[in-house]
Amino acid sequence: MIKMLEYKGMPLYTNPKVYEPAEDTFLLLENLSVKRSDEVLEIGTGIGIISIIASRTARKVIATDINQYAIDCAIKNIVTNRAFNIEVRKGNLFEPVEGEKFDLIIFNTPYLPITEDEQMEDELNSAWDGGADGRAIIDQFLEKLLDHIKEDGKVQLVQSSLSEVEKTLEKLDSLGFDAAVTAKEKYFFEEVVVITGFL
Q: Does residue 152 form part of some domain?
């Protein structure tokens, strides 16, 4: 059943087959680092809330998702909130933006360690399934990151202490980023962090 949410006066449609904004989403929203001239890429846009907020500052935003229900939901929210400098594209990770580079790349990663037995059969699985160690998608993302970021670009990603934050920081460092944990929140069994890296 489609329902409505509200964030700071913004009406937002959700869909049960799309990841609903949660604590990790809001942690990222409160710590976004967007400049007026930025061309922004958000991977895994979900219902589109982060792209919509980013678009209020950025010059242009491209929002992608692998889940068709998310694409449909994001478009509805973009139109409802009149965020007309956002383009939505369907596809996995960087596939929809082959050959393009951005000032800022944002990704609330699927960071939960999930065994094959724990996998869900529906579209929601891609929102949190990080593979056995929680790093499957994070590592694929980091592998292609330099191909899609401008020379003085910036990356912001969300992950959990369950999926080795230090490993991500080390990898970003090896790629030439000055990266650090810029926000964190503790929950029962994990700490969710925002990592920001500057080239």
A: yes
